[in-house]
Design brief:
Number of strands: 2
Shape: globular
Strand content: under 5%
Radius of gyration: 21 Å
Oligomer: single chain
Helix content: over 70%
Order of helices and strands: HHEHHHEHHHHH
Number of helices: 10
Amino acid sequence: MTTATLTLRSTPRLSDAVRSEWTKLWTVRSSWLNIASALLLASLLGLQFGLGTAYDNDHPEPGRAVGPEAVGGFGISATLILQVIVAAFALLTVTSEYATGSIRSTVQWTPVRRNVVLAKAVVLTPVLFVYGVLLATVAAVAGGLMAGSWADWELQPLVTDVLSVAFYLTAAGLFSAGIAWVVRSTAGTLTAAFLLLMVLPLMLGQSGLRVLVWIAALLPGGAGQNYLSGSTDPLSPTVSLLVLLAWTAAALVAGTQALSRRDA
């Protein structure tokens, strides 16, 4: 007579946590509503930017040179507005668990708390990248169609711009998820992300004071804008990229520490 033996893992593996986070992400309506609304806005913004380009080039100011505009630029312009929606998509994966109290079940099933943060980051990274590709492509195509003969559809610059947008939105989303672990509330995290990704870089970057321009460039949103635009003032795109990655890594580390040290 043989005896069946059942072996239970006392500590769930990281892969189990990743599968759980993937399921949670796609079984809530907020994820789909966020994506649908962002894609709609991307198309509308692309149409607006394309129409503006066509009008400005058809009615140029005296002495102003006109010419076709790369359609990838429409995707970049739309990204600078839509980035807050993408940030909300990422941060809600964290704050919604605190709002519903399901975070207690999450840390019970995954007692190694750094794995909870890591699992969410592993799931969000490819999702945010694809999300960024979709948004940039939709805005670029819509803008290019509206711009008509003033649109430059050269493939290589378009691919470069779309991938740059996707990379930036991935970093910005992970940054937002990182600070969500620290702040915990949706309103508070969204406010912090809105300030650091859009408001402060925009306000300080337009200042006449050089020190404020530098501060703007060192913020995550300012670094992202420099990276996307290819600007070398005050930082090169490469340095801007490193600044952005540093913010993202710091936010995730801070989030891991917050979850590990505080009660869920």
